[in-house]
Amino acid sequence: MGEDNLHSFQKLVSELLLRHRSFLDVVSKFQESNSRVNRALMKAVTECGCLHVEAGRQNFPKERSVHEWKDHLKTHLSGRLCDHCLEIVKAEMGKNLFYLTALCNLLNIPLTDVVKQESDQLSTLGVFNLR
User: Fold this and answer.
1) Where does the source fall among the domains of life (predicted)?
2) What pLDDT is recorded for position 123?
């Protein structure tokens, strides 16, 4: 999504957010939408079964460099979202993005600035970001 698209999206959110325009409403809806993303993912595991989680301790190979860790660390996730779960997860992520953008609007922060700042930080720090 280019800068123009993010700007257009942010403007659209500003025009469409009416009922929950209060800062308190936006923050609580943002948190709720994040929970709904998590819930949709958990349902893909526990109800649908299209995703599988098998977790254990991550072993950071001491004989490898930080740059090679990615190849040895596990995501603990297998399977693929089925079409039904994929649509639900994308819809919930979209709502989460809507409320993040609404929060940016209330704080007068361009969404493009948030994305650019994070991208710049990731580019600068690279693997030393270690998230």
Assistant:
1) Bacteria
2) 85
